[in-house]
Amino acid sequence: MEITYNFHVIPTAEQVIELYHNTQLPRPIADKARIQKMYDNSNLIVTAWHNEKLVGISRSITDWAWSCYLADLAIHTDYQKFGIGKNLVRLTKEKVGDETMVLLLSVPTAMEYYPKIGFTKEDRAFTILREK
Prior knowledge:
Elements: E1 4-6, H1 13-23, H2 32-40, E2 44-50, E3 53-62, E4 67-75, H3 84-96, E5 101-103, H4 113-116
Parallel strand pairs: 4-5
Antiparallel strand pairs: 1-2, 2-3, 3-4
Helix pairs in contact: 1-2
Keywords: Acyltransferase, Transferase
EC number: 2.3.-.-
Protein name: GNAT family N-acetyltransferase
């Protein structure tokens, strides 16, 4: 199976919604405009494709000098355990460079995954949750 990774092909909101629905990533998939806004305002998106099918995505917001917030990492369930997520994170880190840290908030079901691909668990994060 050949997976193609791309920094320049931004998926449509429909493709993103289909992927998020498949992975059950808790995102506002019933609100296409909001999904589109999330992607319009992200400045580092890495995609993984099997032929014409979007099978993985890493969506980040970065300043390119200090920090990169990896907001979404989603891999289609039929394509998990093939290293696609690890490659998306690796490509994201390569793109932002050595001076920039990559940080994320994990969904509960992925807490054991991230240490396996090089992340360190932190206990010093704070959030103000969204109201809707």
